[in-house]
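Supplementary Methods. Inverse-folding protocol.

Structures were first reduced to a discrete structure-token string of length 185. This string, shown here, constituted the complete conditioning input.
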């Protein structure tokens, strides 16, 4: 029996056509698998390899190399808090401590008792000018405070749907870009 749904496997099989090399589809394929299951199981990685017609060892190597792929269960909502120099100087360590207390965990490998939350300290999210910052549900949140953390947690614990601005689906919708201006020769 497959650990991935037929729909996800079909999406994965369509990915190689979008890239010059089929191996380039591994990361988006793993992302689809992780999004469906919450983390990557050995079975899911094997199914990704079979769907992409790649060596399972290669797929596992990619999954174990990148920290954005999880091989153990994580919370439904994962906080990626930057603790690099700029964020640390602007209070990231205090944000992490507040977050840990607010979701009821002691270390990054733990999942909150309700299964909703986990966190990870990351090196850099590339927005030092907005420090401290984090990524949550595919969205970046800037100039963090304890109050902003509490609000993000409360929104996700609420039985009401997320506000559109905080919904991961909003992030996935491609917005049309303005046409590029041609350079004068």
């Amino acid at each position: 029996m497959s650990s991935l749904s037929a729909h996800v496997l079909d999406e994965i099989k369509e990915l190689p056509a979008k890239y010059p090399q089929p191996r380039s589809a591994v990361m988006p394929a793993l992302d689809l698998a992780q999004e469906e299951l919450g983390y990557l199981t050995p079975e899911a990685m094997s199914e990704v390899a079979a769907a992409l017609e790649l060596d399972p060892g290669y797929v596992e190597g990619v999954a174990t190399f990148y920290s954005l792929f999880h091989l153990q269960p994580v919370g439904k909502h994962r906080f990626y808090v930057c603790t690099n120099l700029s964020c640390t100087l602007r209070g990231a360590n205090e944000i992490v401590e507040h977050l840990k207390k607010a979701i009821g965990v002691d270390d990054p490998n733990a999942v909150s008792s309700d299964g909703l939350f986990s966190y990870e300290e990351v090196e850099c999210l590339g927005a030092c000018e907005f420090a401290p910052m984090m990524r949550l549900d595919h969205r970046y949140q800037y100039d963090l405070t304890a109050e902003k953390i509490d609000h993000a947690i409360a929104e996700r614990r609420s039985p009401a749907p997320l506000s559109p601005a905080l919904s991961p689906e909003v992030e996935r919708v491609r917005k049309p870009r303005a046409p590029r201006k041609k350079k004068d020769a």
